[in-house]
Amino acid sequence: ALTAGIVGLPNVGKSTLFNAITQAGAESANYPFCTIDPNVGIVEVPDHRLTKLTELVQPKKTVPTAFEFTDIAGIVKGASKGEGLGNKFLAHIREVDAICQVVRCFADDNITHVSGKVDPISDIEIINLELILADLESVEKRISRVGKMAKQKDKEAMVEFPILERLKEALENDQPARAVEFTPEEAKVVKGLHLLTAKPMLYVSNVGEDDVQDPSTNEYVQKVREFAAKDNAEVIVVCAKIEEEISELDAEEKEMFLSELGIEESGLDQLIRATYNLLGLATYFTAGVQEVRAWTFRQGMKAPQCAGIIHSDFERGFIRAETVSYDDLVAAGSMTAAREAGKVRLEGKDYDVKDGDIIHFRFNV
Ligand code: GDP
Are strands 98-104 and 235-238 parallel, antiparallel or unpaired? Predict the structure, then answer.
């Protein structure tokens, strides 16, 4: 299962946010594919389509889909040199599939800032630089090895060498690996290098309680947005402290709390959905009278692979995927009406499943 790592300097609110995640979080028993690990929090993906499908189908049970966040504490300046157990933390980052970088955007004189003052851009630069330095070291090691093989006319090495050179140049200019453009074949080689700065990243601006209603007045958030725009990265604004409080409420209380604040969706829910997209994940649904359920697949998966997420037998014996898009089903009002309107397609093994598809798999046993 794919996981997103929460990183950030000390005292920016990572643990508070992670607490909110685990308290709001799903029981791992319901999600057998998820890891049981104190550093892993399972979140259910908020999806209004699931609510609507439940209204339409009236099933006995509704099951949302979930994925994992991993808490990666402890990155500090000098981590790439092994300071403060730095290398260990970088190794943890290597294992995640996307990075959520928490940035302190709240002023609070009682809470020490590691650099002495609140300065989100400088914080981001510290972290990004550590990741870049770690990658630069990996790339340089690889260059010395692959360079020798390329001289001996090793075919793969001759392909990889110029890619490494380009990565090195970018990293030396403080650019992350993800900023370098590669062809799909080159991208495969880059993927094999497991670079930290090749992972997709978003920024989480942690604001104070006073800024939740209108974060646009927070100058730190503005700065983070400007910075992130250069990297085409998304910024999600949360108040970790409030999220921690919300996570203790049940669904109804939560809705009341948010409407009192005049907020439609909690920052954490926004973060969950943005991270899901960042990981390249998407959702299809199964909808029967027993159960309406959301399933996570990787964008680009074909119908048989998606069937395999439910059960490997479904993939092996795959015949057809009876598919209707969410919008078509809602417009028709029921599965029967959608079928009568010719909106239910019979898709074969080459079908690229789309986010929001409602699918009934037909298979041989
Ligand atoms: P970490 O070191 O990044 O894990 O940071 P923590 O989550 O432990 O937070 C450090 C301190 O900042 C704690 O005292 C938190 O209560 C406080 N804190 C975290 N988020 C907020 C926030 O949104 N507003 C305020 N005022 N304090 C916060």
Answer: unpaired
What is the C-alpha separation between 266 and 254, in angstroms, rounded?
9
Query: Which residue, among 39, 43, 12, has the nearest Cα to 247 in the 3D structure?
Result: 43
The reply to whether 88 and 212 lie within a common domain is yes
Q: Is residue 83 part of a domain?
A: yes
Same domain, 216 and 268: yes
Q: Are 102 and 8 in contact (CB under 8 A)?
A: yes
Residue 7: domain span: 3-47+65-117+200-278
The residue whose CA is least distant from atom 17 of ligand 1 is 13
Taking residue 116's Cβ as centre, other Cβ atoms within 10 Å add up to: 7
d(CA 322, CA 165): 48
Q: Is residue 284 part of a domain?
A: no
Q: How far is the CA of 21 from the centre of ligand 1 (A)?
A: 14
Asked if residue 186 and residue 204 are part of one domain, the reply reads no
Residue 209 CB neighbour total at 10 angstroms: 13
Q: Is residue 74 part of a domain?
A: yes
User: For residue 68, what are its two tokens?
Assistant: 């994992």
| Joined tokens for residue 288 | 């029967």
Q: Which residues are near ligand 1 (CB < 6 Å)? A: 8, 10-16, 106, 108, 111, 206, 208-209, 239-241
Q: How many domains does the chain have?
A: 3
pLDDT tens digits along 95-140? 999 999 999 998 877 777 767 778 999 999 999 999 999 999 999 9
Shared-domain flag, residues 150 and 26? no
Residue 11 among known ligand-binding residues = yes
Name the pTM for this structure. Answer: 0.91
Return the exposure string of 246-258: e unless at least 16 CB atoms fall within 10 Å of the residue's CB, then b: bbeeeeeebeeeb
Which residue, of 175, 197, 219, is where some domain finishes? 197
ipTM comes to: 0.95
| Residue 199 labelled as part of a binding site | no
Probe residue for ligand 1, chosen from 12, 14, 16 as the CB with the greatest number of ligand atoms within 8 Å: 16
CB of 207 within 8 A of CB of 215? yes
The closest residue, in CA terms, to atom 18 on ligand 1 is 13
Cβ neighbours, 10 Å, residue 128: 19
Ordered alpha helix ranges (H), 152-183:
155-172
